[in-house]
Each structure stands twice: as structure tokens, then as C-alpha cells.
UniProtKB/TrEMBL annotation:
This is Magnesium-dependent phosphatase 1. It comes from the Eukaryota. Pfam families: Acid_PPase. GO terms for molecular function: acid phosphatase activity.
Length: 191
């Protein structure tokens, strides 16, 4: 499937959701591209997973920002590859540095750079420890098994909507519980 075809399908998937994340964050190695860039040479021509480019362009077209969170120790190679792939300018933030934290530091930086709350972010990564750590921050985080693809995109948007619904329901529950003049609490008082 060519990039344009993937983009069209990605736009159809995105179009099925009423609420979208404000920012989608991608890992690099084994999420956007099928290798560890630290094992490659800057002189090589890299390639992305087959659906990656179409998905990135679909998000951009829908007005959803995209960013990178990578623990690659070779940011120079990663950045050279993003340039060669012609996608550097698509990202509103590129946090690429090795760290002992499982990307919580990367997300703190992305948050302070963009001002976007964690609950409005969606994250794709191939390592479970990163998914665990970042989802605890409130980011909807999706583990990818074979790079980011249309299936992962659909799953990500479903999970994001579910999480948002949960947040909204909890908010309503709190409002009901703590606003003295809501009808439900009046009723409860009389009972
Ligand atoms: Mg990775």
C-alpha cells in the first residue's frame, strides 16, 4: 500500500472519532522505523515502516500535532535519518536522548515545550516498560508489535476515547458528589 493510500485509510479511521488527541508522540526504533539507528551509519538511506508516513501525514492534515520521544543514544544519526526521510519539519518536539527513566523525562520536556496536558496525548512505543511508565503519567500509551500501522492507529484512538470517557465520568461523579445544589444530592438528603 503506497503512502497516499495509507493516508486516505488513516483519514477515514481518524474521521470516525469525535474526540482526537491534541498531540501524538512516537518512539523511533522499532516504532517508526524497523531498526536501532545506533547500529546504522549516517551515510545509509533509512526507510520507515510501510504505514508510518501515511499516518503522520493524516494526523497533520487533521490538525493533530506529532512529536518524537526516543531514548536512542545516537541523536545525531536519528536526526540525520529524519532529515533524509524528509519528515523533520513535521514534529513540534523531538526529544532524543538516552535516559535511565522510561521516557517520563522525555514527556515532561514535551509537556513543558508544548503546554499540552498528558491526558490530551497519545503515545506509540514498542517497549512495554516505556508504555507502563508513561501511561502512569496520564498519557494513553499503545504498545506496537510490528511498528506503527493502521491497526495500531485504530486501537490508539479507541483507547484514547475510552480514557477520556473515564476522566469525564469521574469528573461528573465528583461534581454530583460535591455540588450542594444538584438535584441528585437534594434527593439523597431527603432519603
Ligand atoms: Mg523503540
Amino acid at each position: 500500500m503506497g503512502d497516499e493510500r495509507v493516508k486516505t485509510e488513516a483519514l477515514q479511521i481518524i474521521g470516525m472519532f469525535q474526540v482526537l488527541p491534541r498531540l501524538v508522540v512516537f518512539d523511533l526504533d522499532y516504532t517508526l522505523w524497523p531498526f536501532y539507528c545506533e547500529c546504522r551509519s549516517k551515510r545509509e538511506m533509512p526507510s520507515l515502516y510501510p504505514h508510518a508516513k501515511g499516518i503522520l501525514h493524516a494526523f497533520k492534515e487533521k490538525g493533530v500535532d506529532v512529536a518524537i520521544a526516543s531514548r536512542s543514544p545516537t541523536a545525531d544519526i536519528a536526526k540525520a535519518f529524519l532529515d533524509k526521510l524528509n519528515i523533520t519539519s513535521m514534529f513540534v518536539a523531538k526529544e532524543i536522548f538516552s535516559s535511565w527513566t522510561h521516557k517520563t523525562e522525555h514527556f515532561q520536556k514535551i509537556h513543558s515545550r508544548t503546554g499540552i496536558p498528558y491526558s490530551s496525548m497519545l503515545f506509540f512505543d514498542d517497549e512495554n516498560r516505556n508504555i507502563q511508565a508513561v501511561s502512569k503519567m496520564g498519557v494513553t500509551s499503545i504498545l506496537v508489535g510490528n511498528g506503527v500501522n493502521l491497526g495500531a492507529l485504530r486501537q490508539g484512538l479507541i483507547e484514547y476515547s475510552k480514557n477520556l470517557n473515564t476522566i469525564e465520568k469521574n469528573k461528573q461523579r465528583w461534581l454530583k458528589k460535591y455540588s450542594g445544589n444538584s438535584s441528585s444530592s437534594e434527593k439523597n438528603d431527603k432519603e
